[in-house]
Amino acid sequence: MAIIEGRGVTKYYNSLLAVDNVDFSIDEAECFGFLGPNGAGKTTIMKMIYCRIPVTSGDIVVDGLSVRQSQRKIKSTIGVATQEDDLDRDLTVYENLWVYSRYFDLRARESKKRIDELLSFFDLGKKRDTTVDDLSGGMKRKLSVARALINDPRILILDEPTTGLDPAARRQIWDTVIKLGSEGKTVILTTHYMEEAQELCDRIALVFGGKILEYGSPDEIIGRVIGTNVCELYAPSDQALNDVRKTIPGSIEQVGNRLFVYGNDAGALQRQCEAATGVSQHVRPATLEDVFMKLTGREVK
Q1: CB 3.0 to 4.6 Å from 148: which of 56, 81, 280, 294, for a disulfide?
Q2: CA angle, corner 152, sides to 149 and 155, nearest 5?
Q3: What is the pLDDT of residues 188-226, one digit of tens each?
Q4: Where are the annotated coiled coils located (predicted)?
């Protein structure tokens, strides 16, 4: 059952078209991702969902409420962790959560109970009296997410939750998202990390140039656009590239001096590529990165 629906959503910043007439539907208790490079429009879509900025045209309905008419009610049901570090550096971990809880008119006893639960959930109990500047990058992100959950929202929005984190801290955030999903939260995230979207998201919208290019589960999108396997070839010259392209049937994408040959049958794909090049080739599973390159002619950076 959909908890968020967008229809004909468009956003202009003066004359700049940032989001171009997109439709989307997000189900309750799923992890949904807006995936794309910086500047694609995904953060703008998120900001319209949680009423940070108004839509120019179209509408978004959040839990039965229109963002055009019910901004205050919508904000009370959503928790948001932005990509910017906006924690109060003069306060401790506990104080950051306490001050934020006051914005939601939580009673003191309820606030203390909720803070203790969040400190335990995010394994921040030993850091409760530590100031923000003395936290690692991963702990700051966990505190930002904890703060977004202080009012126990039905919907959690995470904007680029792991950007700038080391691999270990990134995995900690991933584990947190998975755990929240298992507890019935609807989690919506933006990311430009393809492996993050494949690891976490039940469904994704692939965003580029303000449009949604593809929509569905990662496996559905990969299978629909390019197939399940890829053989990546290198050719040293334009002539070599042309010679290889002439001898391999099917779907091929060229990036510089590399050819990406797509197919479902890994064995047949390997034999075709080896026959065309005369050397041993490796076939790997297709990824969302391959899909993006196929659709846009560029890699995600």
Answers
A1: 81
A2: 75
A3: 999 988 889 999 999 999 999 999 999 999 999 999 999
A4: none
Structure tokens at 64: 């039965």
The class level of CATH for 2-222 reads: alpha beta
Give CA–CA dist 187/299, Å, rounded: 26
Query: 10 Å Cβ neighbour count for 139?
Result: 19
Helices 137-148, 93-102: axis angle to 10 degrees equals 20
The domain made up of 227-285 has a fold known as Alpha-Beta Plaits (3.30.70)
**Three-point CA angle 81, 207, 155, nearest 5°:** 30
Choose among 220, 224, 182, 162: nearest CA to 29.
Answer: 182
The full set of domain ranges for the chain reads 2-222, 227-285
Which residue has tokens 């390019």?
A: 226
Task: Check the CA dihedral 86-168-154-35 and report its sign.
Answer: positive
Structure token pair of residue 107: 């009673």
For residue range 88-103, what is the model confidence (pLDDT) as tens digits?
Answer: 999 999 999 999 998 8
283's tokens: 């076939």
